[in-house]
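User: These chains co-purify. Model them together.
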Amino acid sequence: MSWSQRSLPAWAEILLVPLINVALAFLVVGIIVRLIGIDPFHALGRLVVGAVGSPESIGYTLYYATNFVFTGLAVALAFHAGLFNIGGEGQAYIGGLGCGVAILAFDKYLPGWLMVPLAITAAALFGAAWAAVPGWLQAWRGSHIVITTIMFNFVASALMVYLLVNVLIAPGSMTPQSREFGPSGQLPALSGSALNLSIVLALGCCVAVWLFLWHTRWGYALRAMGHNPQAALYAGTDLKRMTMLAMCLSGALAGFVGVNELMGVHHRIVLDFPAGYGFAGIAVALMGRNHPVGVALAALLFGALQQGGAELSFDEPAITREMVVVIQGLVILFSGALEHLPRPWIMHLLPRRG
Amino acid sequence: MTPPSAIARPVVEVSTIDKSFGGVQALHRVSLAIEAGTITGIVGENGAGKSTLMNILFGLCHADAGEIRVDGMPMRMDSPRDAIAHGIGMVHQHFMLIESFTVLENLVLGVEGGILLSRGMAKARVEVERLARQYGLAVDPDARVADLSVGEQQRVEILKVLLRGARILILDEPSAVLTPQETERLFAILRALRQRDVAVVLITHKLREVMAVTDRVVVMRGGEVVAERRTAETDLEALAELMVGRKLRLQVDKAPARPGAVMLHAERLRLVDGRGVRLLDDLDLELRAGEIVAVAGVSGNGQTELLQVLAGIQTPTSGAITICGRRFDARRPGDPADRRAIGLAHVPEDRLRQGLVAPFRAAETSILGYQDGPRFSPHGLLDRPTIGAHCCDLMERFDVRPRLPSLRSFQFSGGNQQKLVLAREMAAKPKVLLVGQPTRGVDIGAIEFIRRELVRARDQGCAVLVVSTELEEVLSLADRVLVMVGGRVVGEVEPEKANERRLGLMMTGSMA
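Assistant: Joint model of the two components:
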């Protein structure tokens, strides 16, 4: 009887387990920091202050979190369909191309209230299209999505270098980047940091993904396919089309990274702006248990680590950029790969129900 | 193997075992003794506690109170490893084999005996040959498990247990997946094991098999042992009554059918698989409103494929199907959703794999396939309150326990999962109802109920097609019986004029 396996109460599952995982990660980080001769509590203090110590640092934390929300949701949504989309990096890149090209083409003619939605739509469409090809290959040709999406990251990267060096480069410029967007193609910044209106889009995406997955019939069919393709087929779901739908939505979500980065911060198309957000999205989704609320919380944590870590390495030369990556890696390790580690202990400590 | 013990002492005893799962008492003061050289049957309805008891014995879960004694010594069973060390072996209903490995590779898994595989393999090969001779457990040690039939795979499971020196062999619903012939063969093996002083425990709810092969029967109901009988001194009706706690009527009372218009018509239906084998071979079929037609046959003769094709899950290679006046063929096959829209409902044979989504809540499972209509998703948004109420209604009518729509589907016992799927399809008030193995895996009380419901659907004008490998079921339920061999219908019989023997002969193709 399968219901004999005692499961944890929902609150423990959603809050306690991730918190303990993060605490464990920090414990290990603390030991490492101690080993390189820095007081771990001092470092932790610097990290926290760096992440949330001033309005400006909070702004940066939220700005990073915005990217993590987009890629985390992208991975989570595909995951519910049983698809492991690790091409968020490439989809974000091409999504950025989409919104950039739309702005470069129309920013002289359209006012902001028209330009911004158009550019956002273009980001979604380009991201979706970049995910649709692996989706199509999976659905009709049986090529494994993990392989194809990761390959498409490289293709996207090469394509962007080519386009920026040869096609989109601003006339007379020596750096491979486009001309600056006109004012109608720039998102207004919030506070004195990189934080911009994209965060509203990110929150909207959280709500939309939640509504879609658990409250629409398409989300229902998508989850059915993810858990049990045979049952979904029996229920009358066209698995090929559903695979396409899931990948397109996933790619569109990843594509929004381009909105935050290019329209919000760089105001031009630049090289390598996805900077690993696509891959970190996998960890964000894992840690957030593929639920939009969890993804938002995990994105906040990752954003804080990114920002606080940057400040920390600035303050403490002994803690390099790479050290911050180690911290992130440990959080991913404990919340992703070792997520079940503390489960038996909690099981033991919690009072027995019933 | 152990030398034959002259003493008629029980090898395994459990005494006053208690076990509860979050407020539900699954076992209450259960005591049981199993003797060497006997076959003990444990029978009971779904959720009577049979599997829980065996899982405790095999170390898969812990008893809250009570004691397990092996050869008179109290033992702790913390894991299957302990149980195996004490000579207890279990063959699960779902096989635990690695399909891409050979038989021998599967057998030595976990007992490789050293770093180099060759020595352990050679030893196992000798041992397997000996066991094969002793017990008739013949399997090719070099065959890949994936290429074996279900019956052969089960023999590999039994070999695995015996190779590890088991003196007590527990089989959980061993015949659920076997054809009648394979079941006979299994029983011969069990008898040979008994001869060699192995204690065999058979968990089942097929009372006929209990009567055929066991020495002793233990009846469980509601987590307690309610009776223990010598098989020779009891009979089927008495056992059924003990199991359910009331008298049962398995024979369905039904008025003669009044067949109406043709609701489903299949013409020259053909399905060819990738190897060119005709799974369906120009099959013709006609199903009228207000009748139950049963398709009988040894499993693997195309019945599964017939259901899949009729339900729109598989596309036929050629031929046509007309359902409620709408025609589907190889060019326009339609899908399961199209079929449902015109009033076809389908209870799949493998309900657990095809009919439900394990992590979905019961309420979500209760609309699987029906999620698209305005009833459950007006404007595309799922109407949660309506779905919850619908699920409660299904649970009430089909006695699904516990009545918790928010529970996840896999948290229900097997029989209750089955009932939920049956309830969903039958409650849709279909014009055509396809049912695969209507009572497979459900307990005897539910069998009675399901058969009555099928007859009631028929009386209300539904056209019912039943595919079943249980001859007794086919004969008691159907108005017409079609016999399927090699992907075609080889004959039709009226159930009043047929008996199991005649039907059995037709099914093996030796009589048309």
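Residues 1-7 of chain B have pLDDT under 50 and may be disordered.
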